[in-house]
Structure formats: structure tokens, C-alpha cells
User: What shape does this take?
Amino acid sequence: MPPRAEPGGAGPAPPTGPAPPPASPGPASPDPTTADPRGGVPAGDRAPAVSGAWRAGVDPVGRRRFAELPGPLRLERGGVLPGVRVAYETWGRLDAAASNAVLVLHALTGDSHAAGPAEPGHPSAGWWDGLIGPGRALDTERLFVVSPNVLGGCQGTTGPATTAPDGHPWGGRWPEITIADQVSAEVAVADALGVRRWAAVVGGSMGGMRALEWAVGHPDRVGRVVVLACGATATAEQIGLYAVQVRAIIDDPGWHGGDYHRLPAAQGPAAGMGLARRMAQISYRSEEELEDRFAARTRPDGQFEVASYLDHHAGKLARRFDAGTYVTLTRAMMTQDVGRGRGGFAAALRACPVPFTVAGVDSDRLYPLRLQQEIAASTGAPLRVIHSRSGHDGFLTETDQVAALVREALGALRGGDSPTGSPGSSP
Assistant: This one.
């Protein structure tokens, strides 16, 4: 089935379980012509909506296109999702042989808008804008770049905030999904686009987890993978950090078992998601950077500068993200294991025929270099090191180094010469 650029219909069957009762309607639809990309008053001047999810039929479509899965999606942990739709964006043109397509996969709070400005329908500028475009590492004059919003996401793809076939939000009825399920949905997008084999799959953090799953689960459909700042399986520390973030959200009185999407504005679990984001933000940056930027300095009102920084990121996320999506994607990362059912991650990676480019950030304390060393050792790929003071976020902030890695990977794929020099070396 070809992808469609307009919202489609509901799936063939309703989900199981009782539907949440409808709540009183919220405020009127915002005006998409105002300064805020979601419409309405400027984002900094209004209380958080009950969810920052993109709303079909209300919010501007922007650059999104949509692919409908041709049938129900069977999930790894059991159960079926009917009527799945995936939002995605593209740059460049697919060649006649469908041989120049590159899949770019976002992290936890990213979305399909990997490149381009903030604009109606897209509240933030592209998260890898410096990598995608004419003459850039992902050169859209010769490549067809595709970036989907992940299954369970909240920016156009089916997830907890979207409407189920019975007309109610999925909410608390949303099933547990895994990284493998997310990739299964992305396989359907490739089919819809006519892409039998990606020239490369590129991703960092949660996007890197999906890139691993693409390589191991669908090796005949991937020419090369570029894996940044992730591990092959979740560690105890990561699971613990993520569990606390999930707990902060589901213990919020506004959570309502996940069925909050039809409540009035400011009555959802924004406070809990804000706490989760504050915790996560600390783990995303390095201790050295935080100390240099903030130390123990205070603002004129007496608040610590670092606390103000965390408050800013919490409020910013609440305006563009959904708490149910945060929970479902975080739980997917908690259960991540590319070796599940395959004899362990080392055996699964050793058996994978796909060429790998593996890189980590030297100051990353959430996904430290030893985890990328494990992937490199199991695949026979050299470990590349991104030098940064930005911690885990270095795979997003160090554009020049990541661009050099991507250029080198795509050059190897074409059989061409690699660029002179390298963005890093093995530690």
C-alpha cells in the first residue's frame, strides 16, 4: 500500500478492554498561523496542555507523510495492534532502482523532523539538521533520506495519545511494545515506499537500538548500519534510572492509569513527566560540563542555576511530548536486548553479516564507551570515539564529528575512498 500524505481511517478491529469515559471537551482548536508552531498563544505564555502530542485534524500536518500498515501488527510480547499508522518525513528523491535510501532513526524524545526549521506542525528545529541536506553528510542531492516517528510515539505515529479504532484514545490500554516491534512497523514503511534494502540505517541512543535490531533481524534489507551511543542490551543501571522516571509519571495524580488525554488542559501528568525529564537531562550531560556551566551559582531569586536549567527542559518537553509515550518508549528501552531469542547479544552480532560503524561519546555516562566496545568486538568493527564534553547528547551536538563518521560509512558502502583523517580513534 503506498504511503499517504493525509490522515487515514481507523483500523479493522477495536482494542480489547473498556474504553475510558469521555471527558469534557478542551479549549477550541488553536490558530496554526500564530507564532507558536502548534498554534495558539506563544508556548512560554500558556499552561501545558494535557499532552504535547500532535493531534490529527487539529494541528498542522507540516512535512509529515503517513504510511498505513496493511494489516494488524503482531507484537513480540503478545497481542495485536490494529490500524497502525507511521508518520515520516523524507528528503531527496528515491532513484529508479530504489538503491539510495537511508533510514535515520531518532532517540527517545525525537520525532520524524530530523531536518528543517521549527514551523507549523513542528515545534522544534530538526534534531540532526546539520547532517541532512544538499552537500551534507546525508547528501539529499544523491540520497533519499527517510525519518519515521517511532511506533508508540506522539508526533503522528500510532501511540498512547492517538485514537484507537473504537474512537477513544488508546491511553492506558496501550500494550507493551519492544524495540523489535518498533522495527517491524518501520519495515512496513520501507515496503510502502518501495525500498527493499536500505543503503544504510543510522541511529543514536534509542535510534541506535533500532539500527541494531534492523541489522540483526533484517540483515537482507540493510547495506550498512551506523550505531551511535547505545548498547546491545539494557544494563541494570539504565533500567534503574528508567524505572524511576516511569515511576515519577505513573505516580502523578494526573496519570489516571494512562487515561488522561481527554481531560482539560493542565490536569494531566505534566508534573510527573517534568520530574522524569529532569532526571534524564542530568544523565544526558557530563559532570564536567554541568560543573563548568553552573557550579553552585544561584539566580537573583535564589534558585540554583542548574535547577533553573532542568526546569526549562521539563517545561519545554511538556509542550511537545506525551507522558504515555514517554512511559511506553522508556519501557521499550528497559527491555532492549538484541540477543533475546538469538543466543545472547554477542552471538547475534557475530552472526550478523551487515557491516557496522560503531561510535560512542567519551564523556557519556548513560551509555558509556564500554557498551560500544562490546558491539564493536562482537561485529569486528573498529570503535570510533566522539570527543565531547556534552555527555550522551554528544551524538547530537558534535555535528562535525558525526558527519565525518557518516561520510566515511557511506563512502565505504559505495566502495569509494574514505575521507582523510578520522573523527576519533579507539581508546
